[in-house]
Amino acid sequence: MQVKHRWVNVTVVATDGLMPCDVLVEGDRIAGFAERGAPDSDGWQRIDGQGRYLYPGMIDLLQHGMGEHLYGDAEQGAVQAASEKLLAHGTTGFLPSIGCLSPDATGPTLTELARQCRLADGARAIGLHSEGPCFGMPGAHNPENVARPSVGLAEHLIEASDGLLRAVTLAPELPEAEKFARRLARDGVSVHLGHSKAPPEEVPRYLDWGINAVTHVYNVLPDPEPDGSGVHKLSLIDAVMAERGLALGVVADGIHTHPRLLAILAQLPADRVFLETDAMKFAGTPGMEFEFYPGYWVRSAPGKAVRDRNGGLCGSSLTPDEAMRNYMKMGGADLVQASHATSLVPARVLGMEDDMGSIAPGKLADFVLLDADTLAVEVTVIGGVERYRRTA
Hints:
The chain is of the alpha/beta class and about 400 residues long. The protein has 9 helices and 23 strands.
């Protein structure tokens, strides 16, 4: 017999507003809503939310590490450890991500991470993101491992990931990029424009290839050089912002993306923006120096960008709940907008919005209780089961 829970004394953060109501959970799904104080039938166990917000579980689509692990190292237990740690940060789903690894390492690393995803039992490790290796600009990734796209490479990534490849970041201006993107999209992989020098005027046609998102929109997408005419030249960032069918990933730490740029993004329709941490090893910890790839040392610090020894950016040390609060504080987004950016839009980018991303009847009961004043994560529930509760 399925357990039936009635969450009372909560305000639901729904897709179109705040709803003061009770939430009915049967098994691992949301069964419906009920008016506060309305009687219920026998068999419902009441859980008091103590006046908190009931917020949809956060989904992080780009995360290179968390805690003591860097996923690209494929250490045993890395995904499991992250899935446990992420519960305290309101995260119910995430994509362990790899950067530009060597051709010999890419396949075995994806295969091992896919195996670990299937075993992880904390936050849902819902698949893998290969950020690269087909880049026009390497950024902080190993330039020696940048590769050209091809149908063969797409099939290699798909096969190595054992059905769990969910996203790939691609510079679409590269030769054979269209065939590469179309092959990935045929298998339901979300293709993200990123690390690119693509001509801005070419952006509209990329959507036909299956490109539906942009990786960290204000980073490693260059601005054109001014020509002295006084005319604003269309930039790649302008071009992707103009495409209503593209979801814009953003690292909301105030460093990768200036607070005033977050304020611009917060004025777009809610279905355009999603928060991704681009987190690195030691995210969610006091932080320390580590080797991202051989000979390239970087340092992590809580809530800040990860930087190399020359000050260059190399991902962040954000957690998803920090990103959410930053988007509200720095960008001026309200709680409903934030829930789209942390939850619904990421689910939609992956084609999983029927099951995840919002609190609605029929969807998985993946949600978080947030303190009404501080928005700190108090409780995390996955599939109707409480997996985390903050202690005093």
